[in-house]
């Protein structure tokens, strides 16, 4: 039975009240509903969240339960031209409230393609007492009688990975399989296969493993370049040996530099997430709400809570492609130590009598060290040079220099503009291949 207009006026007197605004939040994280125009009086706003439920189903009559339909219809008729407008609401949250749990759906779809990776390596360690290494002891007793005992021990580690193609190509972190003599891969269904490391890249912490199998479940890959802070994030992995663990949160930030997350030797612009990541999650996938892989979980900061980091999948796939093709990745490098120039740093360098340079520039990136026989040294870079531009683009941060070099092919020239003792200098600098220990 359809309520009369008089009934509406008696039952919902708040619909005629004009307030400034109402801000309501749903019970699930990340959902904010902003209403404009007419608002809900406080006494009614807290009564069964009536306004929220009405707007939740506004424009979707088919989703309204029979008992709720008259209420929603009455609200639509009573609000008229100044109906409160739903300005923002996460799609994922709508599905959570509606009963279609996208996190569970993503985990069920991707879970079979997530594997546990167990690695082991044999390490030889000396059992010689430290006193025998003392130079004074050696001066008096020489090498005679000094025991040369060593012992071998096996170090084991556990991480995660995910299957890229049905023929057994698996992506994981380089540190999960670093120096491994043996690698085993365990699937969600309990199968265990021997894995072969076909390539690893320590600079980006990406590695590729191959197992002999066919018709394996695979992941769907998303676009990490399109990520925005605040989007849903789902992590699947094997933290602390607990296989196929699912955690969820949001994308907290993108473009975190390696220096910011305290791993300065990596060349990655990391994704930051508050989805729980623990030891053992390394190498596992970070998913968006559609269940697409957007990152490779790789790092946590010690003594911090809610801070996890992942390698963007676009970069990880590009690295994996090179590893599959030739077993290695050629990274360009200059061999320089540098820092963003600040007023304080400028004053410190100019006041140092041992620096032998006087900086005139006020901004840019100052070169503090140059490796001997490095590409930077061979190209004519000097200590105290301040990098102002590269290939015509202004440089103000050290990270920009590293990214420009990383984006340049080995042997290709970079047009560099420098300030050298107050004079502008133009150089053509050719990065070389980053030396990798074999």
Please tell me about this protein's structure.
It contains twelve helices and 23 strands. The longest helix has 14 residues, at 313-326. The chain folds into four domains: 5-97, no CATH class; 113-210, Thrombin, subunit H (Beta Barrel), CATH 2.40.10.10; 220-326, Thrombin, subunit H; 332-433, Pdz3 Domain. With 438 residues, the chain is of the alpha+beta class. Helices cover 21% and strands 32% of the residues. It is globular, with a radius of gyration of 30 Å. The chain starts with a helix and ends in a 5-residue tail after the last strand. The protein has a six-stranded antiparallel beta barrel with strand order 3-4-5-8-7-6. It has a six-stranded antiparallel beta barrel with strand order 10-11-12-15-14-13.
The outline comes out as globular
CATH fold label of the largest domain = Thrombin, subunit H
In the CATH classification, which architecture of the largest domain applies? Beta Barrel
What is the β-strand count? 23
The Rg value, from CA coordinates, equals 30 Å
Query: Major beta sheet, specifics?
Result: 6 strands, antiparallel, barrel
Overall structural domain count: 4
* Oligomer category: single chain
Overall average residue pLDDT:
78
Derived from helix and strand composition plus strand pairing, the structural class reads: alpha+beta
Q: What is the assigned CATH homologous superfamily of the largest domain? A: Trypsin-like serine proteases
Poorly predicted parts? 7-90
Fraction in beta strands: 25-35%
Q: Give the CATH level 1 class of the largest domain.
A: Mainly Beta
The separation of the N and C termini measures: 80 Å
């Amino acid at each position: 039975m359809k309520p009369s207009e008089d009934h509406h006026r008696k039952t919902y007197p708040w619909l005629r009240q004009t307030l400034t605004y109402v801000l309501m939040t749903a019970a699930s994280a990340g959902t904010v509903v902003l209403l404009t125009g007419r608002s809900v009086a406080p006494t009614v706003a807290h009564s069964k969240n009536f306004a929220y439920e009405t707007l939740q189903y506004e424009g979707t009559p088919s989703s309204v339960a029979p008992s709720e339909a008259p209420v929603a219809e009455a609200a639509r008729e009573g609000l008229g031209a100044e109906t409160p407008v739903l300005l923002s609401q996460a799609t994922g949250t709508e599905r959570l409230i509606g009963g279609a749990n996208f996190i569970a759906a993503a985990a069920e779809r991707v879970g079979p393609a997530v594997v546990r990776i167990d690695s082991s390596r044999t390490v030889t360690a000396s059992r010689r007492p430290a006193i025998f290494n003392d130079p004074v002891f050696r001066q008096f007793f020489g090498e005679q009688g000094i025991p040369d005992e060593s012992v071998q021990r096996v170090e084991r580690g556990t991480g995660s990975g995910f299957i890229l193609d049905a023929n057994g190509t698996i992506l994981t972190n380089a540190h999960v399989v670093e120096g491994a003599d043996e690698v085993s891969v365990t699937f969600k269904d309990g199968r265990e296969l021997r894995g072969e490391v076909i390539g690893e890249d320590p600079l980006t912490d990406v590695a590729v493993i191959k197992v002999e199998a066919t018709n394996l479940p695979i992941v769907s890959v998303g676009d990490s370049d399109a990520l925005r802070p605040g989007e849903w994030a789902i992590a699947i992995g094997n933290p602390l040996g607990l296989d196929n663990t699912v955690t969820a949160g949001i994308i907290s930030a993108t473009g975190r530099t390696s220096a910011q997350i305290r791993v300065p030797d990596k060349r990655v612009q990391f994704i930051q997430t508050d989805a729980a990541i623990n030891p053992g999650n390394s190498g596992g996938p970070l998913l968006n709400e559609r269940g697409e892989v957007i990152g490779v979980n790789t790092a946590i900061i010690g003594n911090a809570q809610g801070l996890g980091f992942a390698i963007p999948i676009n970069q990880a796939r590009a690295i994996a492609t090179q590893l599959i093709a030739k077993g290695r990745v050629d990274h360009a490098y200059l061999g320089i130590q540098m820092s963003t120039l600040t007023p304080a740093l400028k004053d410190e360098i100019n006041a140092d009598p041992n620096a032998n340079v006087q900086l005139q520039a006020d901004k840019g990136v100052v070169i503090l060290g140059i490796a001997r026989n490095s590409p930077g040294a061979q190209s004519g870079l000097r200590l105290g040079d301040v990098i102002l531009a590269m290939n015509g683009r202004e440089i103000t941060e050290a990270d920009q220099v590293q990214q420009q070099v990383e984006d340049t092919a080995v042997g290709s020239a970079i047009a560099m503009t420098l300030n050298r003792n107050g004079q502008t200098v133009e150089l053509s600098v050719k990065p070389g291949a980053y030396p990798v220990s074999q």
